[in-house]
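Collaborator request, handled under Task 6.
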Amino acid sequence: MSFVLGRLGQTVLVLLVAAFVSFSLFRYVGDPVNNMVGQSASLADREAMRAALGLDDAFILQFARFVGNALTGDFGMSYRFGQPVATLIAERFPATLELALISMLIATGLGVPLGVWTALNRDHWLSQVLLAASLIGVALPTFLIGIALILFFSVWLGWLPSFGRGEVVRIGGWTTGLLTVGGLRALVLPSITLGVFQLALILRLARAEMLEVMRADFIRFARARGLKPRAIQYRHALRNTLVPVVTMIGLQFGNVFAFSIIVETVFQWPGLGLLVIQAIQFADVPLLAAYLVLIALCFAVINLAVDLAYVAIDPRVRSGGGVRRTA
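Structure tokens returned to the collaborator:
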């Protein structure tokens, strides 16, 4: 409990720093008043709009007002859309979260087993093919993968939709496409596009860690005791392999959630990434600041979940011992 409370305190500090940095940077990305009133507006109209938005106040006062309102769930009004920022984020959040979750499930579900298998079967021809494919997956740009998938599966074969989220179902305040055939079909191409790089990265990391663990002294001791190879590989070696891999999966999930902008733009996916692109073009400071605070919160929650996962994976954590981390 003390560990969790300490991490929650760090989370609050991280959110304050993220809010301050984002508010400071976006204050200089452009003047939203020019976009809101147009070029034909007089100087008096511009000053009136600036006063109505509170942009003529001191920076510290603007930031204090933003933090105070954010504590009550009020992130202000979007300059671009004229709607509450919290409402816009709540509408787009389910789409981005579903895309990030499915892509990471694909990457983790395939990357870890394939990485372990290639480490245990280094001389197999399929292992060499998988390593070459993973190198290609790391090297290729995400947008190029998306365009290639659209060309092949949407244009040539006509099997899958090339844009949009498809049919969704509303459950309370949450919208999901996982319960409809159209939503699932629309999710296939963007989730694969977003997950290819993560899959290649996790595969190569799991392979490298498995090879390192298999050369450790305790593995030699387990062989000397006469344990079966399967028990050595999956009971002893795999658990030690998963510690840095879990760290990487957690960090990559945060990256996927935060930086899905390219994939959402290619597939016109109605998520937070596409919303942020529109906000940047319009210098929508409240929306951009709220988005970065949300991303900082997600990273903090993910790091906390990763640390708690160590307890289930590594007995040394439960006994108060150290644990090796990669990030």
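The cover message to the collaborator said: "The domain at 93-283 is CATH 1.10.3720.10 (MetI-like fold). Residues 322-327 have pLDDT under 50 and may be disordered. Please let us know whether this matches your experimental observations."
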